[in-house]
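Quick question about two entries, pasted in order.
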Amino acid sequence: MPRLALALAVLSAAAQEPPEAMALARQAYESVRAGNPEDAAAKLREAAKLAPANPLYRSALGGIFKRQGKLVAADIEFKEALKLDPANPALLLESAVIGADLRQFEAARASLVKLVALQPEHVAARDLLETVSLDWGAELAGLRRYRIGLQLAQDTAKRYPKSARVHLMLGLFESRNQQNLAAVAAYQKALALDPSSADASVGLGIAQSSAGLITEARATFEAGLRKFPQDPAHHQAYGVLLVKMAESGAAPEAKAREALETALRLDPALPEPHYQLGNFALAADRAADAIAHLEASAKNGLDDSRIHWAMSRALRRLGKSEEAARHLVLFQARKKAEQP
């Protein structure tokens, strides 16, 4: 066990180290070599009690737990070691790796930021910092914590200006915070860095549409569809744009419906096309067909304010007043929760 052996070498040079603690650490090392990690852990605990100011016993104990797959216990020990030696690069990295495995992304990232500040050329730490930042960003997006996510994305983009994935994350959070022109720039950067990214292409088109750049958005989607003809997200986003254009007479409704139906053929689990097709049916006074699409949309995961408003309208047209009122209440609650 190299880490424990190193710890023992350091401890042997420390005249103030209690000899009983040192003896226990040597015995722990032998126990590990003999294949008895439980006995080694017990001895290291005793050593840590005798020498509570020395982080090496705690880190050695954390190493044993990590090898046993006891990540929660290992995390506790490495954090205790860091309290005693907060600028130790090895401890910072170990704590970050375990934190990432436990999905404690905020704490893991904090350790990595500190480590990279101490050692800017630490390649493994820089690579892990990017990965952890992206993982935390995905978690924040899922939790709809868009303001915190934007701060994370902005800091990460400064650190990794040549990462397409980071600029994708930045574009996402800028969009969610209604910073649409900034999102356009972020997605353009992501697409320039990785022209093969369908996500960057469709994200750019959506951001342009949200920013009112309709001509540019249409061109982006049509270019994306030529490059990614089997990507359902492009057909879906293009369909949504055509819906907006159809409302002002700038595009035929039939073309919007075709794009949405193509998206569903490519991916039947998409909720948005069902929602949009439900609205078409409602506008045509086909309330039953609208409800069928809206229920499919909800089944596929759509649960924002729009669907409850549409359901309320469709149910009211069918004379189902109580159900319509229930969806109206859900609409109001969702609408409030969606406010930035």
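Here is the second entry:
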Amino acid sequence: MGRYDCVVLHNSVALTEALDSQEPIFPSSIIRDEVGAVEESLREGGFNPYVMAVDYFSRDVVNTLARIGPRFVFNLCEEINQRCDLEMCVAGLLDLMGIPYTGSGPLALGLALNKFRVKQLLRSVKIPTARGYLHLPGHKPRSRRVRFPVIVKPVSEDGSLGIRSTSVCHDPSRLEEQVAYIHDTYRQGALVEEYLDGREFNVSIMGDGQVRVLAVSEIDFSGMPQDIPRIVCYRAKWDEESPMYRGTVPICPADLPARYEERIRDIALRSFHALGCRDYGRVDMRSDALGNLYVLEVNPNPDIGPEAGFVRAARAAGYSYAEMVLRISEMALARGAKVAAVAYAL
């Protein structure tokens, strides 16, 4: 197998669609260009990585990792056993094997996948989120005390899956239809939130312990057709031929008043720490019409492909792609060294 000193661990992208889904698979949603880019960056930094695709938990996965005995794993797994809710189990396996790895641990990965739990956690530490409730399949909504318009999304999906232009609802009838779509298609709860008709920001963060905001990015909706809600829906993220894609242009760094940017940075850092994230992550937030800020989502495992928003922010902060990858790797190595030092002392 050769003398490999690290592993780039990733999952192959599932090509199956949910039955009756109106979010088809687009080519841009299945390209994993970050795998090759991370491998190349590690080689430039003097490492000899072994690239390993993992689709299912198996004895072979454990045996291969044990045989290599890597100094660290660069963890790019976003799902396992074709289930994104098992993403946290990959990190858990590496913890059990005593292998240092990049990115957040199992608890942060598991928490972040449930948007409603994230809302509850953030609110408990006085971080603002939009008013809303979780409507579970087969249950009556626990509360109707939200004002229209509202936005409806799957509670546990990634990549804007399940979010479309019709997700913004202006009346109870449309809300009922959209909730039913989430229940029937994605077989999970529907998160119903008051729609914030303001600006949208993505805040990229890097570090472990001592963390820093790389940059604040804003989505420019000025090119969005008037009859389409100003949201980053599934097609806006993946369908490069759609008006939604062309109408959601990232501006990085965002042009913001100093005090307002400081407020955005503070909320993002507090959110990152509240979920126990480490190494790198992204916090998404929106403002209402008055400029009040609310966190939408905390993503502890954002896309780090060469053209991704996180990488754009890293470049704005002065990092090349390779420097970013090596900095993230150094954090995993440092954690491994601390564990080894404690074990040796015992």
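Reply: The CA atoms of residues 225 and 326 lie 41 Å apart. Confidence is low (pLDDT under 50) at residues 341-346. Hope that helps.
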